[in-house]
Specification:
Largest sheet: none
Structural class: mainly alpha
Order of helices and strands: HHHHHHHH
Radius of gyration: 21 Å
Distance between the termini: 57 Å
Number of helices: 8
Helix content: over 70%
């Protein structure tokens, strides 16, 4: 659609700019291509996302307790949570693959660094999992759907969504992300969480 927010010169009127909204599929492809273009030597194992997740989940918990949560803050938290969660799962996947597939280690120092990272990663994951799971339960008890509804209503006011079907679709997308996040951190009877499975596989492979 035409972008009228940045029209400051005659040239902008002659050659109008447009804004675009990327689809979920397009966003996923863009992230995948960004990873492909990273040089292998730059793909270092890092674990910054757990701290971001712990911080943003506490902010969501606080928002869930408010009578009228700020829809802008809720949406920003959900966006940060989604990106941080994707980074966390990608890091866990790469780390487990390096351990289980015995990815080529060029020196004892490389092996030591991989093991040191593994010990730190699993230690931080164990400490964070209980804290995150408790916050998730509090948010669900306070009403996660209420937070989703506030985001949907904000989208309606901003003109991004115009029909009940569109609003329901937005809520459904965020709900699916939330459920995936919850299942990663919270175990169910007979179904250990993904975090627990990562911990077990790492503990079995590190020796």
């Amino acid at each position: 659609r035409p972008d009228t927010a940045h029209v400051r010169t005659v040239e902008d009127f002659i050659t109008p700019r447009h804004t675009f909204r990327i689809t979920n599929q397009g966003e996923a492809v863009e992230r995948a291509l960004a990873q492909v273009h990273i040089a292998p030597e730059e793909r270092e194992l890092q674990c910054r996302s757990l701290a971001d997740i712990r911080h943003v989940i506490q902010e969501l918990k606080q928002l869930s307790r408010e009578a009228q949560p700020d829809a802008g803050k809720v949406r920003r938290c959900l966006m940060v949570l989604r990106v941080s969660f994707e980074d966390l799962t990608a890091t866990a996947h790469v780390f487990i693959n390096k351990l289980e597939q015995r990815v080529q280690v060029h020196s004892p120092d490389d092996a030591s660094q991989l093991i040191d990272f593994g010990e730190r990663f699993i230690g931080e994951l164990v400490l964070a999992a209980d804290n995150i799971a408790a916050a998730v339960r509090d948010i669900d008890a306070a009403g996660f759907e209420r937070l989703l509804q506030s985001v949907a209503e904000r989208s309606t006011r901003d003109g991004m969504q115009t029909t009940p079907e569109d609003i329901a679709a937005v809520c459904g997308q965020w709900r699916a992300h939330w459920e995936s996040f919850c299942n990663w951190f919270i175990s169910k009877p007979g179904h250990p969480s993904d975090a627990e499975r990562v911990r077990r596989r790492a503990r079995a492979s590190i020796p």
